[in-house]
Amino acid sequence: MDSVAQHQHHAAQHWWRTVLPPTITIGAVLALWQIAANAHLVSETTLASPTAIVSSMIATWPDLMAATAVTTAEALAGFIIAVIVGIAVGIGLYASKTANRAFYPLLVAAQTIPIITIAPLFMIWFGFNPAGKITLVAVFGLFSVAVDTSRGLVAVPKFYQDVALTCGATKLWTMFHVKLRVAARQIFSGIRISAAYVFGTAVTAEYLGATNGLGVWLQGAFNSFQTAMIFSAAIVVVAMTGILLGLVSLVERVLLGPAGEDDAISLDDSEL
Hints:
MetI-like fold, mainly alpha
């Protein structure tokens, strides 16, 4: 019991060391920001105060949530497609040396392409339809998933495959029940990278051309110089991204256990 209590004490200390410093920093920044606004050191048109931003969010909450719902649907749909297709592409790159040599460098290079240079093409191809936004999110989201899936599979020690094949498993069974399980941490790393950008990608696509969503909200706020509304959309995007990252981490923890634990898998004849 003493060891359990000690472990809980250390966990609480770690939590406070992790959460308290950024909380204090954010609180200090917001306080100084509000003081500067109250002292009229900066114009509300140029930089809305924290209280003005909160007031704006309360006043426009129904419209803001309606726009958020549209962007969330596009972002999540694109993200799910990106994860599924990205893992499939990563497996293909690992399984085929020809495909790896032909496409892996292109996937790595594609991650450096700014979205603003590609998004107009999707507007031309799909118009203002949500399908274009979903496709753009999926395309940009699958790069990191595919690359990390391929890297994770390459990093799996060969003896895992040897043990499975010796026990009578097929190569296909070994791929899906052994290698992917061992490479899962790396795969989730790529999924987290993808999750960090899906909402930003969807909003950027909407900003360039859409009929609804946070991108349209931002465009209207910019055209009318409503900085409080701009901050409102930014806060929502950050919050939704944080929620998605939290869900990804939760799924990873449920499937694989806490990070840092021994991720090795044991194989016996009953599993094969």
